[in-house]
């Protein structure tokens, strides 16, 4: 039946050196193994680069090892590797990132198609990974609200997202954010499974055996599609 696999990639600057608000996604995913009962992160090669990975039967968690503004190439390669390892019809990609347009502490599901709203990491990802090339894959984002400075001057914004964390900010990102991300994952899983069930019911109702077979046996029915890597392509 429905056998979902979830690839969850956090964006930020290299976590070992840059522990700031801009790496809120890394903080949230770093604590996720204890929420999802997964192995601890370890450094392995994934997406053609060495990176921190925690992998279980249902979830693959990855901390992007690149700088935020050039996240796209790595996310694309990691996604392509996941497509090779798992059937795309049951694969969901979630990108976890910081979000200045949300109040600090707000953890929200964001539609993949929503504008990047000035977030250069998501802008880079969407430039390299065209979701329309993978109609059988579910795509979503989970944002970690970090608030924003009063000034909108580029340098003031950069200083804000790259500044050292206060103890209160660090406590939330390390202790509370992972649990909230886990809740959002459960909500997405429920939504995506119901969506799959509705597709199956329609296929049975309208006597479409090929669709039923594809849904119940995706590994034998999935077609091969190459990733679209055309930089600058707009994703609807």
Automatic annotation (TrEMBL):
It is an enzyme of class 3 (hydrolase). PROSITE patterns: PEPT_TRNA_HYDROL_2 (PS01196). SUPFAM superfamilies: Peptidyl-tRNA hydrolase-like (SSF53178). Pfam families: Pept_tRNA_hydro. It comes from the Eukaryota. The keyword tRNA-binding applies. GO terms for molecular function: peptidyl-tRNA hydrolase activity; tRNA binding. The keyword Transferase does not apply. Keywords: Hydrolase, RNA-binding, tRNA-binding. InterPro entries: Pept_tRNA_hydro, Pept_tRNA_hydro_CS, Pept_tRNA_hydro_sf. Coiled coil: none annotated. Its EC number is 3.1.1.29. PANTHER family: PEPTIDYL-TRNA HYDROLASE. Belongs to the PTH family. This is peptidyl-tRNA hydrolase. It comes from Stachybotrys chlorohalonatus (strain IBT 40285).
């Amino acid at each position: 039946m429905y056998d979902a696999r979830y690839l969850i990639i956090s964006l930020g600057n290299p976590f070992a050196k840059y522990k700031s608000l801009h790496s809120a996604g890394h903080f949230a995913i770093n604590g996720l193994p204890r929420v999802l009962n997964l192995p601890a992160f370890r450094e392995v090669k994934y997406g053609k680069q060495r990176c921190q990975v925690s992998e279980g039967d249902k979830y693959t968690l990855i901390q992007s090892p690149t700088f935020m503004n050039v996240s796209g190439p790595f996310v694309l390669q990691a996604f392509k590797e996941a497509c090779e390892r798992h059937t795309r019809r049951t694969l969901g990609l979630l990108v976890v990132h910081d979000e200045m347009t949300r109040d600090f502490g707000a953890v929200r599901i964001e539609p993949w198609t929503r504008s990047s709203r000035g977030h250069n990491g998501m802008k880079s990802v969407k430039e390299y990974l065209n979701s329309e090339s993978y109609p059988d894959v579910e795509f979503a984002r989970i944002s970690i609200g970090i608030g924003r400075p009063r000034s909108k001057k580029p340098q003031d914004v950069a200083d804000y997202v790259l500044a050292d964390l206060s103890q209160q900010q660090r406590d939330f990102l390390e202790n509370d954010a992972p649990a909230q991300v886990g809740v959002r994952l459960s909500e997405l899983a429920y939504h995506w499974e119901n969506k799959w069930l509705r597709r199956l019911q329609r296929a049975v109702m309208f006597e479409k055996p090929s669709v039923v077979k594809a849904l119940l046996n995706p590994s034998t029915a999935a077609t091969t599609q190459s990733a679209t890597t055309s930089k600058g392509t707009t994703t609807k």
